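Hi V.,

You were right to ask for the full record rather than a summary. Here it is.
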Amino acid sequence: MSDSDSSDDSNERLGGVRLWLLLVVNRWALTGVLLGLVFVILVAASGLGLTPLREIVENQDGLEFLFSAFIGAIITGTSIVVTINQLVLSQELGAVGQQRSRMQQSMEFRRDVESTIDEDTSPPEPAAFLYELVDGVQARANELESELDDERDEELREKIADYVEDTTANARSVKDRLEDAQFGTFDVIWAALNFNYSRKIYDARKIRADHGDSLSEEAAEKIDHMIETLQLFGPAREHFKTLYFQWELINLSRALLYISVPALTVMALLIMYIDGAAVPGTTLGVDNLVWLTSAGFVVGISPFVVFIVYILRIATIAKRTLAMGPFILRESERDEDLG
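Predicted structure:
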C-alpha cells in the first residue's frame, strides 16, 4: 500500500466533503458562507411575487416587529453560552493537592511513553509528542517486519506483512500532517483522527490470538510491544482532545462577545430609525428596504451562526471519538468476521 493509498483511505474514513466542511474549514469562513447564503435567499425571495416587504413594514409602522426579538435573544443566548463555557473551564480550577496529583499523573504518563518508544525525553509540544508516539508505533512495526523471515506459516506471514504495511503507511501519513501542525489550530486533532489505532490494536490482538502457537517467541514479543505502544496513543489523543475542546470553548466565548455588541447596536439602529420611508428606491431591481432588512437579519443571526459552526466541530469530534481503546463504533470500520 502506497502513502497516497493510505491517505485516500484516511480521507474516506473521515467522511469526505461533509466532514471536511464540519471539521477542517476555518470557522469564520464557514460562518461567512452560511450568512452569505441566508442573505442571498432573503433577497431572492423578494422576487417570488409574495407580499412586498415595504407594504408589510408600513403596516407595522417600522421594523420593530422584525428585529426587537433579536435583542433579547442575543443577550440571553450569549449569557447562557458564556456561563456554560465558564462552568466547563472551572474544572481546571482546584486546590494545590489536586493540581499536584494532575502533575504527577502527567509526568507518569510521559515516563511510560518514553520507556515504550525508547526516548530519553518526550517533546513538550502536543504535535511533537504525538509525532514521536506515532513514530514509535512505526518503529515497532518495522521491528515486527524483521521477524517475518523466521515465520514458517505462510498465512501468518501474509497477515503480518499486510498489518505492517497498513500501519507504517498510516503512520507516515499522520507524521506528515503533524510536522507543521500547531496546537490551537485543528491540525493536531485532524492528524490524530487519521490514525486508526483502535483497528490496529484489534488486528494485532487478532493475529496474536489466531496464531499464538505459530508465532516465534520474538515475534510474539514484538506484537505485544506493538499493542503496548498503540494503547498509549488513546489516552494521549483524548488528553489533547480535551485541551482542544477547552481552547475552542474559550474561542467561542470570545467570538460571541466580540460579535454580540455590534449585532445589538445594528438591531437598535434598525428599530429606532428605520421605517418604510427611510430607504426609498431600488438597486439592481430590488427594493432598497429589502437589501437593508436582509442585511440586518443576517447581522442579527450572526451570533447564533457562530455558535453553530463552533459546536458542530466540537460535536463531530466528540461523536467520532466516543470510544477509547479497541472499540470501533463506525459502521465503515466494522470487521467483516463478526463470528
